[in-house]
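ugh ok fine here u go
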Amino acid sequence: MKLSIEEFLKKRKESRPSYVFDLRSMDDYGAHHLVGAHNLPFEYLESNLHRLPFSGDLLFYDGGEGLAKQAADVLHENGFSDYFMVEEGLEAIETALELWASSLRDGKAVFRPGFTEGRVAGAAGEFLDGRVGRERRKTGWMGAEGAGGAGPW
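structure:
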């Protein structure tokens, strides 16, 4: 089933369990991918159908070259039903994520006057900076470090 980028991200967040697969080449995946995504290059999909999870939602994306649509066709032909894909590709997904993060950063300025005590305002600001900082990719420890966590990293 085709999803919009917003629907894809919502399903990724809310479905339990959900599995995200990047259909691009190993090199492209190695250079950059969505956090938590598994690499399954399209050319290996059909020969690895038996390895896909039997329960949960399967979410697929590509680089915008149409591989997600082709993967959906292969899955449908092989009896899968709980699969979802976004056709726009990784760059469009990341653009949507950056717009969301940017709006959260803007919200920080809006909420600042609501914190009358400087210490609380500082802690809230550090927390938001840690969650939506300028880094494109955050691991758990990077998020904790960005929020002012003491370590041990």
